[in-house]
Structure formats: structure tokens, C-alpha cells
UniProtKB/TrEMBL annotation:
The keyword Manganese does not apply. This is ABC-2 type transport system permease protein. It comes from the Bacteria. Keywords: Membrane, Transmembrane, Transmembrane helix. The keyword Transmembrane helix applies.
């Protein structure tokens, strides 16, 4: 698996570096234009978050493209690994990509906060150490689950291997997501958005910002249900990659 992971990163290194360079230039332009034109802090923040959102989408597309290439027969013969490792390697790549982007967001927001000279108030009484763990686990799991659904959709589309299979994969993704939400609501009276809001902050007049910790609930039923589904998705992907996917 490590060989595959290293191979994937080497293959995507130039694209990721170029993307991060463009992101840096865009953020510098947003900040410079904001201060020269007297934009409000909220406007600069919104534009910066929009740029990060676009980059995160591109990174996910790159991971999906890498996964699609790895499950082809030719690539599996070129670098022979078990099918499960193709899935795990792409998952790890997606985690690392999002982690790097999150670190950049935190560093950028810290610098922007300092430059703006905002005073902030953190309501530490509302923060519980366990909430950090719960928020991290919830976020990582939901991201992982969505990526598994995307990988399954790619595998199904590749297994079909006909013209129009791309659209079948896209329809399959939305159908699976809708079915999961419907089942969770019917079985547990809970929709698919069970993570909830982790933290909130508001910028008030006078340069005062307030950060609060929100209540996070992770009901056991939907969580176990999604874990079972994830295991089933992985089994289905391994089966399709080994038996059905063509070059």
C-alpha cells in the first residue's frame, strides 16, 4: 500500500503544488484588494472561504481521478497490489489533502485576524475537552463515508464500462445518498446530517468577535448503520474491481 501511496503522491505532486501556488496568489490578491478598496472583513473572509472551497473541490476531484486510474486493469498490473489497498490509499490521500488545506485555512485566518486587529472572546465555559474529540471524529467519519460512496459510484461506472457510464455513476451517487437519508429517517427518525454544528463565531461592531461551542450529538444508531454500510461498500468495491472492472 505504501508503494501505491508514494506513487500516487509523486504522480499528483506537480498538480497539487501548482494548485497551492494559485491559491496563495488568489488569497494575496483578495487581501490586498480588500485593504486597498476598504472592504469589510466579512467580505474578505467570504471570498477567502470561497477560494478554499473551490480548491477543496479540485483536490477531491484529483483524488477521485487517481482512484479511477488505480482500479483499471492496466495500472493494477503495472503496480500489483490488493484491491482493498487501492481504496485505502485513495482514502489516505483524501485525508492528507484535506488536512493540509485545513492547516492552511487556520494559518491564514490567524494571520488575517492579527492584521485586522480583531479582539476576540472565547467562551471557554462552553467548551468541553470531549467536544473536540467528538467534533473531529464526526467530521472525519462523515468525510470518509462520503468519499466511500463516491469511490463506489466510480467503481460501478467503471464496471459498466459503456458510453454514458459517467452519468450512471453520478446518478448512482445521488441515489445512494438519497436512499441512506431516507432509511436513516425511517429507521432512526434522524436525517443524514446528524453531526450538527460544532462551533460558531460572530464578528460584531467595534471589532469584537465571539466564539462559542455548540452542542454536538452523534446518535449511536445511525453511526453503526453507516459503519455497516461502509463495510458493505468496501466489499462491493473489492468484488467489482477484482471481477468486473476492465482496462
Amino acid at each position: 500500500m505504501m508503494r501505491l501511496l508514494k506513487y500516487d503522491w509523486k504522480r499528483n505532486a506537480s498538480s497539487v503544488l501548482g494548485l497551492m501556488t494559485i491559491l496563495l496568489i488568489v488569497q494575496i490578491l483578495i487581501t490586498s484588494a480588500g485593504y486597498m478598496r476598504g472592504w469589510e472583513f466579512g467580505v474578505m473572509l467570504a471570498l477567502s472561504m470561497l477560494a478554499y472551497g473551490v480548491v477543496s473541490t479540485i483536490l477531491i476531484v484529483m483524488v477521485c481521478r487517481t482512484f479511477d486510474q488505480n482500479i483499471k486493469v492496466y495500472n493494477r498490473r503495472l503496480l500489483p497490489v490488493r484491491s482493498i489497498w487501492s481504496i485505502v490509499s485513495s482514502l489516505i490521500q483524501s485525508w492528507i489533502s484535506m488536512l493540509i488545506l485545513m492547516v492552511l485555512v487556520i494559518l491564514h485566518m490567524t494571520i488575517l485576524w492579527k492584521i485586522e486587529g480583531l479582539e476576540y472572546v472565547v467562551r471557554w465555559s462552553s467548551f468541553v475537552a470531549l467536544d473536540y474529540v467528538v467534533a473531529a471524529v464526526a467530521g472525519i467519519w462523515k468525510f470518509t463515508f462520503v468519499m466511500l460512496v463516491i469511490f463506489l459510484s466510480i467503481t460501478v461506472a467503471r464496471a459498466i464500462g459503456k458510453k454514458g457510464s459517467l452519468w450512471i455513476g453520478i446518478l448512482f451517487f445521488f441515489a445512494i445518498q438519497t436512499a441512506i437519508e431516507w432509511l436513516e429517517f425511517k429507521i432512526f427518525t434522524f436525517d443524514n446530517g446528524w453531526v450538527g454544528q460544532a462551533f460558531s463565531f460572530s464578528v460584531e461592531q467595534g471589532g469584537m468577535a465571539t466564539i462559542n461551542n455548540e452542542f454536538i450529538e452523534i446518535p449511536l444508531g445511525p453511526h453503526v448503520f453507516e459503519m455497516l454500510l461502509a463495510a458493505g461498500f468496501i466489499y462491493a468495491m473489492v468484488y467489482l474491481i477484482d471481477r468486473k472492472v476492465e482496462a
